[in-house]
Amino acid sequence: MVFYEPDKRDRGLLPHDPFKAFVAPRPIGWVSTVGPGGEVNLAPYSYFNAVCDAPPTVMFSSAGPKDSATFAHSGGEFVWNMVTWDLREQMNLTSATLPRGENEFEHAGLEMAPSTLVAPPRVANAPVAFECKVTQVVEIVGGKNIVTFGQVVGVHLDERYVVDGIVDLTRLKPIARCGYRGDYAVVDSLFEMIRPDFDS
């Protein structure tokens, strides 16, 4: 068992920082936003997750003032789109660095669908999408990272993935980020463990 401080790891043993590989798998924050001039942006974020369910809140962390963060802050809204196995290649294409104002939907060959309560469009083929209102923005001390929190105010769900009243993740096949340059996982099987004091 080795111990190291994050900025002093043994680079002979660990030439690549394993932090992202340890905190895994992580859902992908495929975030769509609209800029002040009507520019549409779509980008995947490695640091994304649910925060709480009352009210339902999610967050994504941006390494600096990238388009998704600045557009979400200026407009006060964003949409999270679930990345599935079938959408993996398009998601990867939207990670390309494009000139500001160039549409990642078009770049990746994705169709936009209108949202109901917010301005940013959603990915038409994403089986789940959250319409979100920005509630808080936090700048991480000691770094350049900006965390955007959003309350989920609307949910789009493809009902084909609902089985006996339960959303079937093995049918959805969401993918997750697992670290390093391009490691991902796919949810295609589940196991169940009911906690001892679960109140049905």
UniProtKB/TrEMBL annotation:
Pfam families (UniProt xref): Flavin_Reduct (PF01613)
Domain Flavin reductase like: 21-163
Highest taxon above the source species: Bacteria
Protein name per the record: Flavin reductase (DIM6/NTAB) family NADH-FMN oxidoreductase RutF
Lineage: Bacteria, Bacillati, Actinomycetota, Thermoleophilia, Solirubrobacterales
GO molecular function: FMN binding; oxidoreductase activity, acting on the CH-NH group of donors, NAD or NADP as acceptor
SUPFAM superfamilies per record: FMN-binding split barrel (SSF50475)
